[in-house]
Amino acid sequence: MAQVKVYYDKEGNTLTVWFDDPQEEYICEETGDEVILMKSKSGRVIGFEKLNYSLSKAEPLNVAFETLAI
Questions:
Q1: Euclidean distance between CA atoms 40 and 33, whole angstroms
Q2: pLDDT tens across 18-29, in order?
């Protein structure tokens, strides 16, 4: 079963989400929307980081996932 890892850094104001093993990161690409895509050697997106992301103390971090059969 695949795991998704979500990290929120309140000091750095970043939200990082990994769809695959972070050790597989080969290159990063900035999208221009304060989002950085982490890619494997084959060019597959294995995670992303949202810059300047912050939560208020009262706001929970909710994560929802949708899967597609390929």
A1: 21
A2: 989 999 999 999
Q: What is the DSSP letter of 58?
A: T
Predicted structure pTM score: 0.80
The total domain count for the chain is 1
Amino acid at 61: L
Q: Are strands 14-18 and 27-30 parallel, antiparallel or unpaired?
A: unpaired
Q: Which two tokens stand for residue 13?
A: 């104001």
Are the beta carbons of 35 and 48 closer than 8 angstroms? yes
Cα-Cα-Cα-Cα torsion 26, 45, 28, 51, nearest 10 degrees, comes to -140
- For 25: left if phi > 0, alpha if psi spans -120 to 50, otherwise beta; the answer is beta
Domain residue limits at 61? 1-70
